Amino acid sequence: MDNNNIMNTADFDVLHEECGVFGAYDFDGEDVASTIYYGLFALQHRGQESCGIAVSDTNGPKGKVMSYKDMGLVNEVFNPENLEKLKGNIGVGHVRYSTAGSSVRENAQPLVLNYVKGTLGMAHNGNLLNAVELREELSYTGAIFQTTIDSEVIAYLIARERLKVGTVEEAVKNAMLKIKGAYSLVVMSPRKLIGARDPFGFKPLCIGKRDNTYFLSSETCALDTVGAEFVRDVLPGEVVTITSKGIESDTSLCQKNNARCIFEYIYFARPDSKIDGMGVYESRINAGRILAKTHPVDADLVVGVPESGNPAALGFSLESGIPYGNAFIKNNYVGRTFIKPKQAQRESSVKVKLNVLKEAVAGKRVVMIDDSIVRGTTSARIVSLLKNSGAKEVHVRISSPPFKHPCYFGTDIPSEDQLIATGKTVDEICKIIGADSLGYLEVDRLSEMICGGTGFCDACFTGNYPMDPPTRDIRGEMG
Amino acid sequence: MDNNNIMNTADFDVLHEECGVFGAYDFDGEDVASTIYYGLFALQHRGQESCGIAVSDTNGPKGKVMSYKDMGLVNEVFNPENLEKLKGNIGVGHVRYSTAGSSVRENAQPLVLNYVKGTLGMAHNGNLLNAVELREELSYTGAIFQTTIDSEVIAYLIARERLKVGTVEEAVKNAMLKIKGAYSLVVMSPRKLIGARDPFGFKPLCIGKRDNTYFLSSETCALDTVGAEFVRDVLPGEVVTITSKGIESDTSLCQKNNARCIFEYIYFARPDSKIDGMGVYESRINAGRILAKTHPVDADLVVGVPESGNPAALGFSLESGIPYGNAFIKNNYVGRTFIKPKQAQRESSVKVKLNVLKEAVAGKRVVMIDDSIVRGTTSARIVSLLKNSGAKEVHVRISSPPFKHPCYFGTDIPSEDQLIATGKTVDEICKIIGADSLGYLEVDRLSEMICGGTGFCDACFTGNYPMDPPTRDIRGEMG
Amino acid sequence: MDNNNIMNTADFDVLHEECGVFGAYDFDGEDVASTIYYGLFALQHRGQESCGIAVSDTNGPKGKVMSYKDMGLVNEVFNPENLEKLKGNIGVGHVRYSTAGSSVRENAQPLVLNYVKGTLGMAHNGNLLNAVELREELSYTGAIFQTTIDSEVIAYLIARERLKVGTVEEAVKNAMLKIKGAYSLVVMSPRKLIGARDPFGFKPLCIGKRDNTYFLSSETCALDTVGAEFVRDVLPGEVVTITSKGIESDTSLCQKNNARCIFEYIYFARPDSKIDGMGVYESRINAGRILAKTHPVDADLVVGVPESGNPAALGFSLESGIPYGNAFIKNNYVGRTFIKPKQAQRESSVKVKLNVLKEAVAGKRVVMIDDSIVRGTTSARIVSLLKNSGAKEVHVRISSPPFKHPCYFGTDIPSEDQLIATGKTVDEICKIIGADSLGYLEVDRLSEMICGGTGFCDACFTGNYPMDPPTRDIRGEMG
Amino acid sequence: MDNNNIMNTADFDVLHEECGVFGAYDFDGEDVASTIYYGLFALQHRGQESCGIAVSDTNGPKGKVMSYKDMGLVNEVFNPENLEKLKGNIGVGHVRYSTAGSSVRENAQPLVLNYVKGTLGMAHNGNLLNAVELREELSYTGAIFQTTIDSEVIAYLIARERLKVGTVEEAVKNAMLKIKGAYSLVVMSPRKLIGARDPFGFKPLCIGKRDNTYFLSSETCALDTVGAEFVRDVLPGEVVTITSKGIESDTSLCQKNNARCIFEYIYFARPDSKIDGMGVYESRINAGRILAKTHPVDADLVVGVPESGNPAALGFSLESGIPYGNAFIKNNYVGRTFIKPKQAQRESSVKVKLNVLKEAVAGKRVVMIDDSIVRGTTSARIVSLLKNSGAKEVHVRISSPPFKHPCYFGTDIPSEDQLIATGKTVDEICKIIGADSLGYLEVDRLSEMICGGTGFCDACFTGNYPMDPPTRDIRGEMG
């Protein structure tokens, strides 16, 4: 059970991705749970609250699924004993972060269920816009809901479509016609591993291969970890079906109009991943380079706020010629169960987590690069840490545009009234965080950042939602 | 996770009840979780594998249910922290034993769900005969199943009926028309606590009251524990609805033909409970008295196999005049996680659990009373313990008839080929267990045991099932 | 860590033994940890707070000891993994109850240490009277203490004596010359298993044998559990040394004047144990018989307060002819972590733990037998439970004399001002507990209870201490 | 208990520091446990196996110490409940890594004990050379040892000296005259906090202050974390005594000949610490600069092996003008309980922990900076990872000299036959790890690295031990 005194990661003033998915199918019949375990490790940054693995034996009695899931990190939930018991050569895994209200074990994924045609295991990354309506609609035909996760809604739709069509992949596709929003899905039926991505392609999903084992993964970094080769990305709108006959693809729902989440490049994805052909690390280097050109400054040192600010800082340095350095030491031992200092205590969470290398910054004009400013409180504290350590000037450069609008597609962001950029000028923000200057990456440079790529969603910066946002804020209800 | 070396209670050669249910509704608005906790303690003998509590605040926002459930004893699952978080003045609780296959956390009860009219919490004791058919039928209208427990089937039926009728209690009644088998149900809707018992009345269910709090409980002993007064039993086939307006009763499904489980009186229920007006302790005393009359023997001492054999032993002594005594010391510290001795070890599970008071039995002709013989192995070991301790003769008397037929109504019994009584005469069994004589309670004396009561199910002894048994053995699939 | 809301066993108004010891030496070289585990199970009633096992391989490198100990029941502390790691054919085990102040993991036994001659493992049952003085004395020669247990003092003395004499058993004997009080010791050196008992013989200790394995145990019941034969009791004042050459005995400290704890027979020991040749069960039957003669009463039913009151109740019934019966159902699932009801709650700890069989007692004149009355609160509640259940009269008979004086030898009893018998007449106590009559076993009948045995300590009843009690109350400091 | 399948940090081919110490004394009487908790976080890199905190109330009854310690990270061992119970305004804390043999809970620190003058709490970083002799000597005067840690030996010496002298600080100093080796000590007596450092000053220790609270800490980074100001380093050989009257210093054991561990600067200490006036980060930058001058190479990119190689890589880049970049992504979620891949599995521990940024290195000539090569296996794998990712050349530069000799002062290093540098030329090592060139920092440049500092121990590189090494290898026995 949670303890109120325990600080969870949400206390740090950062954005949260909500999920990572991973699937594996070994056609040689070997167990895949252990490999999925390592795959989930590589995706842990996408969700630290709960995790789970479900497996099935495609050569055994049809539809027996074994699963284990719980609150906690991959590291904490799985041990040699429970992993050993997950016997099966096909499986799906999931890591999850959730908004506070639905942080209960019942909501951990993968979702495992019996339906008319046997069993399904399902892992989902994203957020549906019409989940409330669909739940209501399904309720009126007698559905009951035991969780508050969107996956359950999708599962119902697949189950019902499956009554009408001949294959589970067709059912998946038909279900996709009813759901609106962001979703990358990995679905395991007794003999098939299916991957699907919403037609806008909000969330990433890719295919990998190692000998006779196929993989589906939110990010390519997990393929590297398990020693698999990257085959290709699943296309926005595509349904891929992996069976003993190979990979089948149904692209009938693909559309021209894509909306890949630009924040995957800026912050969410691991730098060693490639998403839809574009390297994440490279895009962050680019962001730094662009900032150096658009918001130049005379300074002695460029530093990144660890870890995510470092690549952009390097890019800024390469472009500007100002030396790159480290200004911060991050304490990696501050885990999920870290006890948060109380107000009255002299210690602060930021100081426990970050310390400044005084000798590196003292007397210098410092360019400090971060990926975003959310509430502004953390930025203010870090600027203050630098100044207290003797930095003569602190010039803040942010490798994304000001964050002004809610995301309805699976990113957990505070409400608009908590976002520092809402209704404030850059100058005002600069003053609030105590910086000597402040520069954001401009929205019209985002495409340049990803080497001219298009078809991304920048609604959190622009308010230009790729599909109509819900009339009421449904975030938090859906989890 | 389980450990194969750990002996669970199933290793002892005894029968298992599968569930206990408890519900509470405090019209003064006080939290009931703590009281349910104590109620579940009193019902722990009905299920030691998992337990759970779900509560709701009838004065709060409609339909917010908080629940906590896990594998383990009431003692192990709940602590002051998690109990404290269960805020609400209406609630249901459950203790569960299950057959091996479905011993997973997902199957712990109460089942909590959202449906068309809000939330339901449900706890169920019993076993449905047509669950497979109903699941199939429901699947063909798009239902998905996340557990393997019957409660989920019942919940679906209630949810679907609720679309057609005006109240949840009507929906419960209509659902009852579709399900066949044994079930005592406690259902919590946002503003109502509902109890229902199948028309045969296989499983017990009673109503209690303490000030402004009403209770539903599998057994009266739990009412005693929480300081409540017994109000009455729920009738077989009755649906009772407890609201702020009082108790409403719908008896339209009641029928003449009842089939109360006779084994509740013989073994399952706690001796301090009364079921349908008949005291359990008294019925066991009666069983001993009957045995003394029907299977008399010249002996020096009457002893019971603890704990369950003691009352019948006392009855045998009272009737026969042979002194009652204790022959065994039972080690109550042997809990769920006891490490089972390996074959090669000199220690045996029986010896760790039971020791003989040598001085009490040495040189004596002993009447040993037990409630039943299942596989016979434990009985053989206990007879042997007595003889090795110097008992001159051991006369075994069993306070129930030979157990020959499977139960489809919620009792976990081995398959027929493992039952010692199947296809063997009493003399053969006597030899196998090494006794000097053996006597069972005759079937035609069961009514006398419960003071002339009628309307009970004795199918496990007679094969006379009150409803057609399933054509294939569905035990184990259902859990 | 403890939780204040959790009721520990101390909350029940009973006396507590403080320890049980068990040792094993397998001359065939097999591991003994598993056997010690089962032996500790049988001794669990002597201490439920912490437990531990230490083992050594007499054929391996000299003096490598492996141990594991922790707070909790045998059941909770050991699992197949940690038990498996305890490799060695000689070992000692311990179960412990302690007074509140010293309930910390550091005080768990066995104590394992390195000293001038290698390693020692030591388990101790009892309490020293001069521990404070010895600690002080040892301190002045540079000793440091890492626990608050007496065993550490004894270990120092053995270590220091060992510098002067040729064998560890001699060192043990010499140490015994310095310590005053109650102690049964099991000591493991690299090649020897040593048992010792203080010259008064306060605490029991016996020897057992199974094939080529020798045992030392607080009680014979543990020998039965592991399938060993009882060899003999260790004599008061004797030091036995078990080596590959057999059992050697040094009786030079034996004295005529013994003081076996009479409470072992009345309450502490398991009924299936024999202590110094006298069966515990038999002595309790005797106590009941004596009460029937000395405090007869006209009644309909004799009942025992479970579990400990049952044998005496049986004895009372046998002697008086009044039928024996069960009046109470005890909930055996109430474990160490049971959450204690708060004052405001309607539930009480007694009611959760005990329920009355109303039908058994209603309208009857009941003789209720218990082993002792400590504070009186529990007795009062139980009498009240019986009366509320319809008992017409409740006559309380106690199978021991009134408990009036503190014990300095290892029994945890409340201070005199909390003992109901201090300064009150039997009539006054009878009124306080609400009984219709009250009778205690007279002090001068104690010898009759144990079949004419002599040489026991009855100081808690008489104040006649076998050795001068400490001038200040040192209980609690010693742990 | 440990699980053999679980990889512990020792599996990574790196060196281990053995301890970190932290002490606090709040003269305003506030509890210090929480502050020590945050201090230990900052020192976690010095020991990840066990940790503990002991506190005492200087205004309460003299000498009551409360402590809690266990195996695990600070994060895992402490929770709000157990931290809350540690009441006291003076305290010591400890983090520990140990060699395999003594990895048991009993060896966790601080050591808490009673001795002739009350209580002591003690935390120790280092390793004694004459611990075996001292143990033997102490044994011959009747000492018993319950742990295998050096602190117990030191405690005995202090306790015995205290009998002769008037203050505990004098006793500490006198004990220091008897012990040989490396030790930084924090000792808490009922009214004093004492810090001491061996005359060679092998291990760091510094003093901090925050309002009315004084601190002793292994590293300055922990002072930063708790918001304290650095006061000064404790001098090699100095004993500082902090009481309500201020800081007293006894420098009578100080000597000219110092031997600060050079590896603190190279690898052990956190980069944001200053040790004896020299910044750790700066020394690592310097090491990189020196390598660029002494082992220049024509290349496109300089990268560090995370985390420890990064500062030297930056220094190399600054000096050489070759661009600095990131080549690796380290998975920070790989914790203590990570399940190690089996031999047969395709995943490797290195790959799970490190991934290469292919786009950053492909086609490039890479300079890879690491702090040391121990066995060489990890270096070989990382070089191979870079080459497989397309690096055209990999030039390895090591920011320390070849590591050839055992350390007897508290660093856990493999035996000489496992050290790759023993008996091999640099060219041979280069071939083994598969690099295109290899350069080590020369021994005669170490002083330059720390800005001309002298008085350090470089025995692991040179074999020039500041005191005679033990005649037999006592590492592992001492723990």
From TrEMBL, chains A, B, C, D:
Its cofactor is [4Fe-4S] cluster; Mg(2+). Keywords: 4Fe-4S, Glutamine amidotransferase, Glycosyltransferase, Iron, Iron-sulfur, Magnesium, Metal-binding, Purine biosynthesis, Transferase. It catalyses: 5-phospho-beta-D-ribosylamine + L-glutamate + diphosphate = 5-phospho-alpha-D-ribose 1-diphosphate + L-glutamine + H2O. Binds 1 [4Fe-4S] cluster per subunit. Binds 1 Mg(2+) ion per subunit. Residues 19-245 form the Glutamine amidotransferase type-2 domain. Gene3D superfamilies: 3.40.50.2020, Glutamine Phosphoribosylpyrophosphate, subunit 1, domain 1 (3.60.20.10). The active site is at C19 (nucleophile). InterPro entries: GATase_2_dom (IPR017932), Ntn_hydrolases_N (IPR029055), PRTase-like (IPR029057), PRTase_dom (IPR000836), PurF (IPR005854), PurF_N (IPR035584). Mg(2+) binds at S308, D370, D371. [4Fe-4S] cluster binds at C261, C407, C457, C460. It comes from the Bacteria. It holds the Pfam family GATase_7. Pathway: Purine metabolism; IMP biosynthesis via de novo pathway; N(1)-(5-phospho-D-ribosyl)glycinamide from 5-phospho-alpha-D-ribose 1-diphosphate: step 1/2. Its EC number is 2.4.2.14. The keyword Lyase does not apply. GO terms for molecular function: amidophosphoribosyltransferase activity. HAMAP family: PurF (MF_01931). In the C-terminal section; belongs to the purine/pyrimidine phosphoribosyltransferase family. Catalyzes the formation of phosphoribosylamine from phosphoribosylpyrophosphate (PRPP) and glutamine. PANTHER family: AMIDOPHOSPHORIBOSYLTRANSFERASE. This is Amidophosphoribosyltransferase. It comes from Lachnospira intestinalis.
